[in-house]
Recover the amino acids of this structure.
C-alpha cells in the first residue's frame, strides 16, 4: 500500500504543478494582452512569432502529457487480487474437505457392514432355532392330543437361510 500511496501523492503533486504552470501562463497571456491593448498598432511579425511560440509550447505540453500517460503504470486493484486468491483457496479447501468426507463415509460404510454381518448370521441361526422350536411344539401338541402324525416330505436344503 505504501508504494501505491506514494504514486498517488506524486501524481497529485504533478497535477497541481501543471495546473499552477497553466495559471501562470494564462496570467502572462493576460498581461501581454493588456500591454498590447496599450499599444496603438500591433506588429504582425511579433504576433506571428508569439503565436508560433504558443503553438510550439502547446505541442510540447501535449507530447509531455502523452509521454507521461505512456509511463504511467496501470493501477493495481489489490482488492480484486485478494478476492481471487481467497476464492481459489476456498475452492481448494472445499475439494480437500469433500475428498476427506467421502473417504470417511466409505470407511464408516465398511465398518457398519462388518458390524452387521455377524448380526445377520446370528439372526439366521435364531430363525432356524425358532422354526425348530415351532416344530417341537407342534409335535408335543400332537402327542398330547393323541393324534397320529404324518411325516411331511423331505424338503431340499437351501444354501442360505430365510
Amino acid at each position: 500500500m505504501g508504494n501505491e500511496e506514494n504514486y498517488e501523492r506524486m501524481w497529485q503533486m504533478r497535477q497541481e504543478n501543471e495546473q499552477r504552470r497553466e495559471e501562470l501562463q494564462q496570467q502572462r497571456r493576460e498581461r501581454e494582452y493588456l500591454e498590447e491593448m496599450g499599444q496603438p498598432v500591433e506588429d504582425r511579425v511579433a504576433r506571428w512569432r508569439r503565436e508560433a511560440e504558443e503553438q510550439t509550447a502547446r505541442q510540447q505540453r501535449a507530447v509531455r502529457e502523452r509521454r507521461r500517460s505512456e509511463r504511467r503504470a496501470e493501477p493495481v486493484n489489490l482488492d480484486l487480487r485478494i478476492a481471487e486468491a481467497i476464492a481459489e483457496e476456498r475452492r481448494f479447501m472445499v475439494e480437500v474437505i469433500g475428498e476427506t468426507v467421502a473417504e470417511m463415509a466409505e470407511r464408516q460404510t465398511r465398518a457398519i457392514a462388518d458390524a452387521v454381518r455377524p448380526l445377520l448370521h446370528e439372526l439366521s441361526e435364531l430363525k432356524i432355532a425358532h422354526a425348530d422350536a415351532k416344530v417341537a411344539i407342534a409335535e408335543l401338541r400332537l402327542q398330547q392330543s393323541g393324534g397320529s402324525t404324518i411325516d411331511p416330505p423331505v424338503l431340499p436344503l437351501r444354501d442360505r437361510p430365510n
About this structure: The radius of gyration is 51 Å. Residues 2-76 form one domain.
